[in-house]
Amino acid sequence: MRPSIVLFGDSITEESFGEGGWGAHLANHYSRSADVVLRGYSGYNTRWASLVAGRAIATLPRSAVAAVTVLFGANDASLPDRASSFQHVPLPEYKDNLRAICAVLRTRWPSAAVILITPPPVDERGRVRYPYGGDVSGLPERTNEVTGRYARACVEVAKQSGLRIIDIWSRMQKFPGWETSFLRDDGLHLTPLGNRLLFEEVVFALRDANLSLEVLPADLPLCSDIDPNDAVKYFQE
Amino acid sequence: MRPSIVLFGDSITEESFGEGGWGAHLANHYSRSADVVLRGYSGYNTRWASLVAGRAIATLPRSAVAAVTVLFGANDASLPDRASSFQHVPLPEYKDNLRAICAVLRTRWPSAAVILITPPPVDERGRVRYPYGGDVSGLPERTNEVTGRYARACVEVAKQSGLRIIDIWSRMQKFPGWETSFLRDDGLHLTPLGNRLLFEEVVFALRDANLSLEVLPADLPLCSDIDPNDAVKYFQE
Fold first, then answer.
1. How many pairs of residues across A and B have Cβ atoms under 8 Å apart?
2. Residues A99, A104, A107, A113, Cα dihedral to 10°
3. Domains of chain A: total
4. Which regions span the lipid bilayer (chains A, B) (predicted)?
5. What CATH number corresponds to the domain at position B186?
6. ipTM value of the model?
């Protein structure tokens, strides 16, 4: 019985199978023991995600989903008076929406581990270099400080709901030079190194949920485990 | 209805979500329109794969699988009198096994496009550099010439069965320097460039099967398609 791990989120999830992406790393890590399923929606905030969560996972099996990551907030934290205001979601609503999303997931998969992930930090210089939609104001449409409030709210929702949490906003900022080592030129999306860090944090969280490689069985015999002199018997039912 | 694309094969499939891997490229390409499902089994030949094919795909949904790639032969082509003889499968049996695997897939998913892929070419110098299981004979356990016979047999099975075929053995060798640009130091597995070439060939085959990005719908509204002044209506059911 090969379980699935579902990745639900915004562009940081949608792009997670790009070069060096955290989703691809996960699929490679679990290549013989779990399916990693991508449900990433660029630009989405929790308001939109909570409206579509049921549809996003409708085609996935009712059983066999062992874990779900939920990564939203980067778009919710868009400032209400800047170029990307249509993505903004007020902080109290963000928390309600996160709870609503988790409720959908827990109803569908009662035994799955739900892992909340905060939005990553923002490098405002990058946002000015890559202004949203060709905005000419010279002002970043998101700031790290405001995104941090959403990150803390995400941690709070997880703690209140008894869910696992990866505070990648705080974690990344513990490393000097996080702005350029973990974030791309746009100050928002992850570099391969940033993806690697997030991948490792997800692996730790999955281990905590008893879903480590050591615990999950390989779905068929490993070549290294078979006796070369009597190989076929390992593959018979 | 988000379809699935299943990748069934040996190590060249199992490793396809590694750095720059063809499976990860596919999952990224279809991030909003299809699930890419990994069923790769390092070291397996068609004898073992035909015995486990039913079990390998047992947890996958009966519907919704739109395409399956089948990539075996590199291990079958191990020479019967060299270090990796336990993986060897005689050529006539290889063809029978491929047909048996395809029969399992077509029975389970009658409307899915089955795409056979030949084994890639082999650089024997790499095999001597990385001898199988510490073999000290100084002789490669596989040769490009013999692997080519399996590739041609694979093409033959596909033509006789009316299945799509990617002859990656021939395709790669059209490029001068294929030995080092497409194959890793071990002369057997793919570099990121080799993975890229295989990815592109799979995309062409999927397009031929009417499964291009242009044809498959995005599974939920694209952020770029919505009206910022009335966003929520795009997400309501």
1. 110
2. -70
3. 1
4. none
5. 3.40.50.1110
6. 0.96
